[in-house]
Amino acid sequence: MKLRNINLNLLVIVDALLDEAHVGRAAGRLGLSQPAVSNALARARVLFGDPLLARAPPNGLRRTPRAEAMREPLRTALAQLAAIVAAGPPNLTDLRGAVRLVAFDVLAAALGAALTVELAKRAPGIDLIFHPWHVGDEVERLERGEVDLVVTVAPASRGLLRTEPLGIYPYTVMMRRDHPAAAAERFDLDCWLAFPHVVVSGHGDRQGSIDAALTRIGRQRRVATVAPTFLHALELLCETDLLAAFPTGVMVGSAAARLTSRPVPIALEPVSLHLVRHSRTDMDTAVMLVAELIRAVGPQLHDQEAS
Q1: What's the pLDDT tens digit per position in 55-74?
Q2: Among 19, 58, 131, 250, which one is least packed by beta carbons within 10 Å?
Q3: What is the set of domains in the chain, with CATH numbers?
């Protein structure tokens, strides 16, 4: 028997019938007619495969053994359902638990500080657990239930996933403030390509979408360093003559304060960030709260960077 085939109103009538062991009294208690309650008893007998109430002399009814066994569990279940329906939104200060997130390193660092401050105000019992960022498997880990929220560049709309945009970040060229290119009167393509570059790749790849764009116009750059994370790359930019073309969203944090930027001298598609979660968290107040805070904090980080 599937729950979707069970009428909850029928169970409410059955509860009254089992309690009263009398059709008339059950009808009066529920504000229903006796024929309606009798009809409900007939349907309940089919549902449970048991008479539930049997004739007893002189003109009464008695509960069957099956009815006696299910009487208290049914009452308890209905009471629990009533409590769920009657309960209001949970008090955020009473929430306890943990929310697991995956985001690339710079964003995780920036979000972590902002989210911790906000959670301390609104839901101090909620802990944040940032899981390591592995290139390309974030969504699969979400589907397996290993994490609760993922920030990724690729929207995921399949199955039971919930995806929403967080922001669009154009590319910019980053360098240390006293870099020779920063003093150039004109930062053009030749100036950009005159210096070695650093790229970020979790797999050690030296080529990416920027190199493909350069190839289309018959140019190439020298990738002198491949860093595994943006934080690593930003530190390298602060101490060397390396240049980087990164989405503006990574230019946050202490290292970013020592950097300056210039427009990329070729056309590049901007990067979009998305927040992804699974439908199993639709009723999880803690996860929904953290998702709400990420939506609120994300634009603030972008504004700080732009300023």
Answers
A1: 887 777 899 999 999 999 99
A2: 58
A3: 3-86 (1.10.10.10), 92-169+272-306 (3.40.190.10), 171-269 (3.40.190.10)
